[in-house]
Amino acid sequence: MQRILREQARKYAFDWRDEPLLRVKPGESFELETYDASTGYFKSEADKALPAKRPGFDKTPPLANPIAGPIYLDGAERGDMLVVTLDAITVDSYSWIAVGPRRGPLGESTRWPELSNEYTTKIFQHTPGPSGTTRDGTLHFNSKISWPITPFIGTIGVAPDREVTTSLDGQGEWGGNLDIRDVAVGNRIYLPIYHPGALFYLGDVHASQGDTEFTGTAAETKATVQVKLDLIKVKKIPWMRIEKPDALIAVNANKPLEVAVETATFHLMDWLITEYGFSPTDAYCLVSTCPDFRINVYQMCKIGKLAYVAGAEIPKRHLRR
User: Model-level pTM?
Assistant: First the structure.
């Protein structure tokens, strides 16, 4: 099986000029070893998020949130659709979160000065599950609180059409730093393609995250990810899509949040109309009346130029006609 090693997984932009690190065929499985969002800086609670101490933070924008890639998919051309399947995510033995001055919505808090006056790093230990790995393991928030590891890919996408966009705050219909909890094992991710070979990138694995990633970081971790790429020829989609075994999700990133919600819903309606035979009227009325229609707010944190990420979701059982 082909593999990108962790030391190779240190790109900080979605750049169509990058030389591919791998060349794969449709349906071929391969592995990526990814860094955490700090490129390995946070190892203990003594490692604080002081910009002066963090490698790459002398750059503008900082060299943070590394990604692996690009991966060149044989046969992929502009105007095709990329299908990404995540077969396995095995996270490291720990994850971290870092808060402090000028980080996140409470980085200048006067109500709770400890959040804005000092830097705090928390390290979460991971223990293996029944498989003997962290794929089904447990994250220990502290000695009393724990939960199942629920890993997902925070940053995923292809090289954008014309621009070069950073992995830290780049977002668009092509993917980017979106922190979508549904970009997980068992789901299929659909992306538009703009360049020969698709030029696919992946990184920024989280061991777990709540809705919105409120502080600006979640349970950040290193990981090994097993992936395969497939191709649907001559198929254009307006934005990234996710297909779960039992649901469809259309995604959008925008500001203000209501624009992201509205646009994601428009994209879901388009999916229902073009591929599932709904009339525009039925699709419009379905998203307003179905009690199982959901808006997922995946990312809504104050970091750089990041927009807010919403997903409009409908269960597949309502698509039978």
Answer: 0.95
